[in-house]
Amino acid sequence: MNDTSGPATILVVFGATGDLMARKIAPSLLHLDRQGLLHPRLRVIGFSRRPWSDADFRDRVRDTLTERHQDPGPLEAFLKRFTYRRGTFEDATAYHALAEDIGGIATDWGGCVDKLFYLAVPPDNYETILGNLAASGLTSVCNAETGYTRVLIEKPFGHDVASSKALDELLASLFTEEQIYRIDHYLAKEMLQGILAFRFHNDLLESAWNRAGIERIDISLLETIGVEKRGRFYDGVGALRDVGQNHLLQMLALVTMDQPRTLDADDIRAARASLLETLRPLLPHEVARSSYRAQHEGYRGIEGVDPESETETYFRLKTMMSGPRWAGVPVSFESGKRIAPGPLKRIVVTFRHRQPCLCDGTTHLRNRVVFTLEPDDTVSITFWAKQPGFDYEVEERAFDFALYEKREKLQYVEEYAKLLYDAVRGDQTSFVSTDEVRAMWRFVDPVIEGWSDGAVPLESYTPDTHEAVERAREALGRTGTKPQVGVLGLGKMGAGIARNLLDRGWEVVGWNRTTSVARAMEPDGLTAADSLEDCVAALRPPRIVWLMVPAGNAVDGVLFGTGDAPGLADLLEPDDIVIDGGNSRFTSDEPRAERLRGRGIDFLDCGTSGGPSGARNGACLMIGGDREAFERAEAVFADIAVQGGYRFFPGVGSGHFVKMVHNGIEYGMMQAIAEGFSLMRRSERDLDLEAVADVYQHASVIESRLVGWLADAYARHGDGLDPVSGSVGHTGEGAWTVEAARLAGLDVPVIEAALHFRLDSDDAPSYTGKVVQALRNEFGGHGLGT
Ligand code: BG6
């Protein structure tokens, strides 16, 4: 930036006599200056209430720098950049004087300067300052093509969703998003920026960087320092708002976001925001169960802190991720002041061990990737290696990569220097977008609400010890507990789903009306329950129960009981989720959901396609219901489905509706295939039908799973399909589709004809019927007869 032809910038710091200037801004500017990165024409105007002169201001900056740096070097030239404008934030004339100061510098420099307004003040002053800036004409650019006016603001951006929205509206009334630079200094940390390079410029780990490969993520920001002189500020926010809502969530975003389209700021910010938007806000009971908060002894005696303060100086929070890439992966966040030994700031990514364990059966070995910010900037990959020697013993070792040797670390300086450098250049990558702010508050708000409603008691810990960390771990339970699900109904489909989930690391509690069926699956790892009561008792709340019983009365029996026997509605608790994964008619979903809702139990309807082999190895799922319940149960769907094979459709019954129509379409498609193959069979050409089905499967327009299954059926039974019945069975969905179309006033002649063909086939078996029935046998496991 030593090129004097570049942009001349004036940095106006509101609140220039305060702590932010001393601790962050002045030392960072010096850091840039020393590296030759500060434009010779960058000037700093301090704006504040104190009756200071330029000389006073420079003295103060000098003192600050001398206090903080052991050897700041000669400062005279650097200090010349600084001037002072006295004024209160409310005083309109002071802004006019500021405009004149800026105008004067601009004239000296040839007429045009860029302006960077840094609001180093508490947020309640923003409105006054921004309003006065606009009124004095200072927010406009001096040159519409190349000039800029930008505003830099510090966290916290509001104190909840509503206030951050209000703040955004205020900013948006005066600036465009491109002009607003919201600071989260963690985004400027070398190690966190390095995560993008680590993940997206290397392919080694990225293919396992998802729910299939990663078991859990743990993020810590443990400090040895206390709140220092910031008692008043800190007491109003607490640890979760101070670092959780911003730094910790950004750490998670960087480590789990999708690859951005490009490395442009907009794309990177959009990728971070999309990830943050997948975070599901916790329900009140989850806040109670998944969070811990504590305050260190002595905190209430700190200057500025309320002597009866209930503010946390430590917290730990657990959640599960959502979205197709990460659904169900547990994440923990923790941060605390005055925790020893320390500091420890890091992200630990623990991998699953997907292969069978070659160990004593008790501990399965795990690999971890650890991104450490403090004490050192390192990336470390732990792995298991054979110990040298005669015996075969393995031990944990690590590949360590130190980003760079830490020099003297001045808190904030490196990061703020980068942020200021980027703000001058107009690079918003390391600044937080409005979408990110919104998403982060959306996640944090319910936790803070829960805490202020008394859902989680405030514990106390001895400062400068590890006590808080240990107690939090105890209180929130062991890590690595398997997720649980109940599967009710262990027929062809239910057993497949249960086995599929067992393979993917779930603890499955299974129940079947004939109890021996569940018992027979115990060797596969199933926890067999003899009764619905046992099943519910074996599951930790909030429970997820997957129903796979025949559509109709069986579903009502299990849900609402039969005779004196209780049903799930009597046994489950509020916030438990029931998923009807069978082929229930969509019209029966709402009445059932309504009855369950009355007891606080959520209901999701799920159409399951792909037959028993899909259930066992990866199905296609169409899910309806309430989005929030879907997100809580998403991990189950993601594990049962093939990759990308589940979608949510809002509204109770939507899943079964989409599945019903799927079956209607299936009727028509099967009928058309069957009619075509009948024609070929009748023709005099002596066609090899298995060969026909096979050639259709090679890039023809009608290549499909159905034609593939037909090829299999011909291979199995011969072209005559002799063992197959010429009458076709049906389970209702075709008739329901025709009925739904009639009610909607829509003609569906193909589906209707296919339905009538099946109904009439009872009395009129045919070769066409054999083809349809053979297909049903292949994919649905229906018998060869009807
Ligand atoms: C700030 C918080 O945002 O981050 C401080 O307000 C905290 O309370 C600091 O100490 C931690 O930053 P770093 O860079 O030292 O990890």
Structure description:
The protein is of the alpha/beta class. It has four domains: 8-154, NAD(P)-binding Rossmann-like Domain (Rossmann fold), CATH 3.40.50; 187-329 and 348-475, Dihydrodipicolinate Reductase, domain 2 (2-Layer Sandwich), CATH 3.30.360; 484-652, NAD(P)-binding Rossmann-like Domain (Rossmann fold); 667-780, Orthogonal Bundle (N-(1-d-carboxylethyl)-l-norvaline Dehydrogenase, domain 2), CATH 1.10.1040. Helices cover 42% and strands 19% of the residues. The strands form three sheets. It has a nine-stranded mixed β-sheet, with helices on both faces. Strands 19-18-17-20-21-22-23-24 form an eight-stranded mixed β-sheet, sandwiched between helices. Helix 24 packs across helix 27 (767-780). The longest helix is centred in the C-terminal third of the chain and has 29 residues, at 654-682. The protein starts with 8 loop residues before the first strand and ends in a 6-residue tail after the last helix. The relative contact order is 0.07. The structure holds 6-O-phosphono-beta-D-glucopyranose (BG6). The site of 6-O-phosphono-beta-D-glucopyranose has 5 residues, from helix 8.
Write the layout of secondary structure elements.
Blueprint lengths: L8 E6 L4 H16 L8 E6 L5 H15 L7 H4 L2 E5 L5 H17 L5 E6 L6 H10 L13 E6 L6 H14 L5 E4 L6 H11 L13 E9 L8 H26 L8 H13 L6 H7 E6 L17 E7 L9 E7 L7 E8 L16 E7 L3 E9 L7 E9 L10 H13 L5 E2 L1 H19 L5 E4 L5 H9 L8 E5 L3 H12 L3 E5 L3 H5 L7 E3 L2 H7 L5 E4 L5 H8 L7 H4 L5 E4 L8 H9 L4 E8 L1 H7 L1 E7 L1 H14 E10 L3 H29 L6 H8 L8 H13 L15 H11 L5 H13 L5 H14 L6
Parallel strand pairs: 1-2, 1-4, 2-3, 4-5, 5-6, 7-10, 8-16, 17-18, 17-20, 18-19, 20-21, 21-22, 23-24
Antiparallel strand pairs: 6-15, 7-11, 8-9, 9-10, 11-12, 12-13, 13-14, 22-23
This protein binds 6-O-phosphono-beta-D-glucopyranose.
6-O-phosphono-beta-D-glucopyranose binds next to α8.
